[in-house]
Amino acid sequence: METFGQTLRKIRKARGRSLAVVAGLAGISPSYLSRLESGDRSLDRRWLIVALAHALDVAPSEITGSALAIPRDPGDDLALNEVRLALLAVSLDEPRGEVRPVTRMSSACWRHRTTPKAPL
């Protein structure tokens, strides 16, 4: 079975694009793209898969082999980021930052989802 990195390299070469070009379009360094293709780094971030797909002019599913869940609202990822930051703020034996109760975090996420968005 082909890995994500192998698929990525195959698509990049079929498109005739260099590491530097694809990496630049995706907003990463050529060395990082090379490590993704070789399997030294995992391709596990949705934003990166989407950026690479745009750089290669393919659907993200062509890289991953399956459809990616697209958030309904760009703010959905921001709400998840709040949770991610809270989890990173506390580590074993080394609390950093503010420890937030779950109820406070969920109410912040709810407020974010229900706040009217300005028209584009």
From TrEMBL:
InterPro entries: Cro/C1-type_HTH, Lambda_DNA-bd_dom_sf
Database matches in Pfam families: HTH_31 (PF13560)
SMART domains noted in UniProt: HTH_XRE
Domain of life: Bacteria
GO terms, molecular function: DNA binding
Organism from which the protein derives: Saccharopolyspora phatthalungensis
Coiled coil segments of this chain: none
Span of domain HTH cro/C1-type: 8-63
Record protein name field: Transcriptional regulator with XRE-family HTH domain
